[in-house]
Write a structure and sequence with these properties.
about 375 residues
Length: about 375
């Protein structure tokens, strides 16, 4: 079996993650922050330790700014719905996932306007495209750190500087890049970072991260285990944004996942790009293959002339090679590359893939 759908979620995890999750289920099945007994305190210690690791890894102001959510989409919604108000304006890129686009369209009904800037590989052109859309009431720029369809890395540091100079909040969707490339909220001038740790940080699914400053409104209210005598939501972080029981086993897995990435951070991106570049180069030699760009991240899209993406995907599936086909929840990106009518076959690799798997994949495409 060859798993090349890591942009959706990583299938292969470090052995330490499996052990940490199993241990949490067996030994930490108590609710952190809800009780004073030893088991609850042990669970709370694991959560605290993981917050600190996340904060340090991404250059957050404090561990208290690290909020655990249900998923990255929820983190994005919390930012956009908590920060933006009627009469304000924001800007997104033309490579956004539906987690941003659909939320933008939804809150537009509340009188919050948005525009879409055109990404260009030339950083100055991209910045000029953004500048042309900034208005007096522009509150935020929201963009992905990397395209989940075409493996394009956006100019995050430069956009962050632009936001800082214009006193605009900067929200970054790092679903495809957290754990793969370096992200530092301080040096990149990121105000809000939204993360899908089940991808590049190897945690189980069912967990998201929002590294946040204080948003005006909580997304969900309810029990936090703190200030229980109050009928109103606590105002302090992270409690303000963590109503209800958090996913302790997934957080324990994240703890181990971050340790793995830290130990291998000098090799992960290099290894993944070696594999994806090899696949790209071999596909480019085939005359009936359409490639759209040379990727900056370990994600690429292609099509086989005369066949639908689903036909290619079904053939690979029958040979136990798992990729994703279709529109990948990113219609803006497909519109940009004129693939909205047919979608693409997407290959996305992780640290646990091998060059032998890449060779087997290429041979199957040749046979097809």
């Amino acid at each position: 079996m060859i798993y090349f759908d890591n942009a959706a979620t990583t299938f292969h995890k470090p052995e330490s993650v499996y052990k940490a999750v199993n241990k949490a289920i067996k030994e930490l099945s108590a609710n952190p922050g809800r009780s004073g007994h030893n088991l609850s305190l042990k669970a709370a210690e694991t959560v605290y330790e993981t917050r600190v690791k996340v904060a340090n890894f991404f250059g957050a102001k404090s561990y208290e700014n690290v909020v655990f959510t249900q998923n990255c989409t929820m983190s994005i919604n919390m930012c956009m719905r908590g920060l933006l108000n009627r009469g304000e304006h924001f800007i997104i890129s033309d490579l956004e996932h539906n987690s941003v686009l659909r939320t933008a369209v939804d809150i537009k009904r509340q009188g919050i306007e948005f525009d879409i800037f055109e990404f260009d590989y030339n950083v100055e052109k991209t910045l000029n495209n953004i500048k042309s859309l900034i208005k007096q009431n522009t509150k935020a720029i929201i963009c992905t750190n990397g395209s989940n369809v075409f493996g394009i890395k956006l100019h995050i540091k430069e956009i962050g500087n632009l936001c800082k100079n214009n006193r605009i909040k900067f929200i970054v969707d790092a679903a495809q890049t957290a754990g793969v490339i370096d992200i530092n909220m301080n040096s990149d001038n990121i105000d809000y970072l939204c993360i899908a740790p089940h991808k590049g940080l190897y945690s189980p699914m069912g967990l998201g991260i929002l590294i946040t400053d204080n948003l005006p409104l909580p997304y969900v209210t309810g029990g936090t285990g703190s200030s229980s005598a109050l009928s109103e939501q606590p105002e302090y972080l992270p409690d303000k944004y963590e109503s209800g029981t958090i996913n302790v086993p997934a957080i324990a897995g994240l703890n181990a996942g971050i340790e793995f990435v830290e130990k291998n951070k000098n090799y992960i991106y290099q290894k993944e790009m070696n594999i994806i570049n090899y696949i790209y180069n071999e596909l480019s030699k085939m005359r009936n293959i359409t490639l759209y760009n040379k990727p900056d991240l370990p994600v690429l899209s292609f099509n086989v002339d005369g066949f639908t993406a689903d036909e290619v995907g079904n053939y690979l599936n029958e040979n136990q090679v798992y990729v994703r086909t279709g529109l990948h929840c990113a219609p803006l990106a497909h519109k940009k590359f004129k693939t909205q009518g047919r979608g693409t076959v997407r290959v996305s690799v992780s640290y646990f893939n091998t060059m032998n798997e890449a060779n087997e994949f290429i041979n199957l495409i040749k046979k097809f």
